[in-house]
Amino acid sequence: AEAAAELLRLYRRDPDGWRGCRSTGEVAVSWRPSAEFAGNLYKGEGILPASPQNVWECIKPVAGGLRTKWDQNVKDFEVIEAISDTVSICRTTTPSACMRIISPREFVDVVVMKQYEDGTMLSAATNVEHPLCPPQPNFVRGFNYPCGCFCIPVPG
Q1: Distance (Å, rounded) from C-alpha 118 to C-alpha 108?
Q2: Over the stretch 42-62, which tens digit does the pLDDT of each residue have?
Q3: What whole-number distance in Å separates Cα of residue 20 and Cα of residue 14?
Q4: Residue 78 to residues 27, 37, 63: CA-CA distances in angstroms?
């Protein structure tokens, strides 16, 4: 989890190589080739008219959190094992998609949540195997490379 968090911090600090691919008035999505796997990294950025704490409440990876209420791509989120106050093993499920052509997925990740001195909040995760969470019937087991969300306060 700590390695995933550090990798995300490095991505955030390195502006080189990102190419814009989609943009609306609220969100800009960029991509760049990954150094870890044969594919691309993606990042979405936007400014929300809310306090960082209110935004964090919507995105933080906790059981019973708000993410399953607003994110149609997250059907359920559960904590399999709490390692500490900030690190846990979690299972996220997604619904089927494209008229059920794409099967529901499940992801088992080690997740860390951090808050930095400047007020930035981070959740970072990466794939892990866990004996309390074997693959479940009717789900395809997905694999997450290091991924996560930053909630960064902006002046004003």
Answers
A1: 30
A2: 999 999 999 999 999 999 999
A3: 15
A4: 28, 27, 5
Chain centre distance of CA 41: 13
If you search the block for the tokens 């306090």, which residue do you land on? 51
Rg (CA), the chain: 16
- Convert the pLDDT of each residue in 56-107 to its tens digit: 999 999 999 999 999 999 999 999 999 999 999 999 999 998 888 999 999 9
Query: Which domains does the chain carry?
Result: 1-151 (3.30.530.20)
DSSP letter, residue 99:
T
Q: Is the pTM above the cut of 0.85?
A: yes
Are 108 and 80 within 8 A, CB to CB? yes
Stated as kind and residue range, the H or E segment containing 52 is: helix 52-59
